[in-house]
């Protein structure tokens, strides 16, 4: 034994030595010693000797680990006295060696926890209770080191019982893990909690500033233990394993103890203890963190202990009273610190979630009033604190997060606003809304930059824009603003009109001084306008993702309530006078508030448009330009061309200004098209602004009602002329496609087929002709590498991709172009951007229009697609490149080709083409085309390329889909393709390392084996090709080389393989059993294999697969411990 210890100590010195002090051979030999050590059988005496005699911490750590592995491996052969003796020894060891390093001690107490848990299966926790009594005595005896050891043991025990799904390495089935966890919850977890609470109550009286180090450490351990109990995943119902894993992965679960906890957890003194304790320890940030987490968890108490309304109200009242006392004391002490702000906001958020306003409103009205007042004050306080601290300050981010949590609470309040006194919602909404506006305006109206920071008016490419970064915050502020819509709209209108007036003056000042740069004053002004637009856009419109955009009821109510004071004609004049201030229109005070706001934004857009046309574009702000376009787009989606039938009551002012087929709508569309053209021509150097402008155009053409109005506008003709004459210059790819998509979609609004064809010819034919003029040049093969020609080709390809977003009518236009593109691909195969666009066009065509094509057109698209794949493969087979980007470019190309094959395959199950008796039937299926294409592509799919997860996933999705639809075609593949396919499946199972890919491989093998079994095609070549997978799966499973989450898929596949290859399975089992040198292990393995398939017929039916999977879970637990040692 001493020799073994000395070898291990020497090996540990080598492993822990710096790299320059030992050779690679020495390190490898040292690793081998430890690997061999971990395989030692019956290691307990050896490990005890090492623990007693060695001083090397790493060796002690490894010895403890070997005890753990030995216990799992040999548990069934150990007697109860042996196990208890070992647990007693380990407990005595850590007590007698208080100076052990923390990592060695934690390893040993983890082994103790495993023993305790494993024993509790048989003795129902009797031994565990004895250990807990000893541990509680250790903590209570006053010796600091013993207290730390006791807390470590409790922590290890709780960690071992905490999860069930991921605790499979202690030789227990999942169901047993779950059972012992429930047993622990009902008995000893409660005892641990009671002990911690009692200890904290005693220690709380001893806390004085500054806190003594020993007391600080003990408090930290006890509060952390209590936090662990309060964060425990109590699962009180029998759920499937997958659902339980979801619950257990929750990092912030609610507190849902069982009914047996009722008397303990509802004790009012517990809440009081933690609020009081927090005040005493708040000077220590680590203690503060854990105490706040305990309070946050207590605010989420729910479940079976809170079934009665009276109980919930009593608990809620007690919590809120203590919370208000804490806030009062914190203000008395000076301020709420950032971490406390975050904690308090989380408490309020959780209270609103678990004690909704409909319940909250039933507590004592005095307490409720004080609480609601504090919610409002804290919201404003956190908002101001975040603003004043500065954007780069760590404390500012905490206050900002706290403010966001407060707004989440306000979402709940606004949802149940009828439950609260009406004056509360209105007063609080005004206060919060005003504060938010103030925090985002510069002095003198606001406090932005009060800390001396300056605004950056330019949008950085890598920076998330404000409207996205603060999307949820702005939406909530908008909802609060709508609560008092008249007040909010009045403030925002005044602020925007004031900034508009100042903007004229500041621009003129800079122009008169000959300056072309934005100075600090104009920059602050632009930042003000930017935030006013963001807030106003969220007040007048709702953020709708995929839903019909309706005018918010509060805004409609505002317009209706002010109808008696509104002059519709004046409102229209204000709207239609973008070149002059609203105050210049006689009687402008009688303008509808919504129309006045929209009119002011139009005025802002006009100022920008005139400035750029006059050559002063450098004095405009790209950020504000984007915000203007964003605001107008929201307005267009919600208000323009109003559908009156959507509303029970509607404002005549809004209908007159923005209704269907009105003069107001016609004028607005022309004005907006002029602004869009201005942005695309004069401000095209700003990519994000161009993209936003194209999105505005797309919203204008969304729907036939707006489309019919646009067809009548002069602006559309200008836009088509600009696009077809290539005068818009280079635009970002997404903007180019969006523009062409918008122009094509307008045609959908045409009343009849002939007018549609006429319109589309006007848009599409010029592009087709110009593209043809380039590629049909006699000298094209000599000039195609000219930069201008290449850029023109790229622009036309982008346009064609955009056109394919419509349906069948466009295929007649597209088909000859696709044929030309196959030839173009052969010529320009060395230009990756051109190749990628050609492949993408084929991909989009197959995805968007294939399902609408008749048999003739379908065959044409099949043929051109296969020709495209063939040409690509001819030019890339065997191709080598030293450029770093080459592999990534080929990855993108192959990904598009795989998507193309998948899209072509969809024709066989999604065919929406009208029946055409004159169209000839074709015997070529999409699966034939897909498999033919796969045969071409597969030689290009190298292992390095398959390491790209998205490409690999798309490849296996495609082959699995083909197999699921046409397994008979897979079973008759030609030998080369079959060999490639089998090789790729092996890679997917063993090398790729992506769970989704592994699952798809399992699905493929299951489907194909079931087909072969049903159709009795044991003589096919694919049948023999699949046989090695039986051994592969058994090796993967038994050697633990797959994720535990994949075991269900693996077991089902293994069962189907066993059904197909029963003789091979029996041979493998016989080999594994005979390979065991230990006779006892041989008998255990034979019994495990016998139980695995007992009473399960090998028919591959689903019911039998499920039964086999249940048996397999038990089999894995039984054999993994002794069959192979990791």
From TrEMBL:
<protein>
    <recommendedName>
        <fullName>Exportin-4</fullName>
    </recommendedName>
</protein>
<dbReference type="GO" id="GO:0006611">
    <property type="term" value="P:protein export from nucleus"/>
</dbReference>
<keyword id="KW-0653">Protein transport</keyword>
<keyword id="KW-0813">Transport</keyword>
<dbReference type="GO" id="GO:0005049">
    <property type="term" value="F:nuclear export signal receptor activity"/>
</dbReference>
<comment type="similarity">
    <text>Belongs to the exportin family.</text>
</comment>
<dbReference type="InterPro" id="IPR011989">
    <property type="entry name" value="ARM-like"/>
</dbReference>
<keyword id="KW-0963">Cytoplasm</keyword>
<dbReference type="GO" id="GO:0005643">
    <property type="term" value="C:nuclear pore"/>
</dbReference>
<dbReference type="InterPro" id="IPR016024">
    <property type="entry name" value="ARM-type_fold"/>
</dbReference>
<dbReference type="GO" id="GO:0005737">
    <property type="term" value="C:cytoplasm"/>
</dbReference>
<dbReference type="InterPro" id="IPR044189">
    <property type="entry name" value="XPO4/7-like"/>
</dbReference>
<keyword id="KW-0539">Nucleus</keyword>
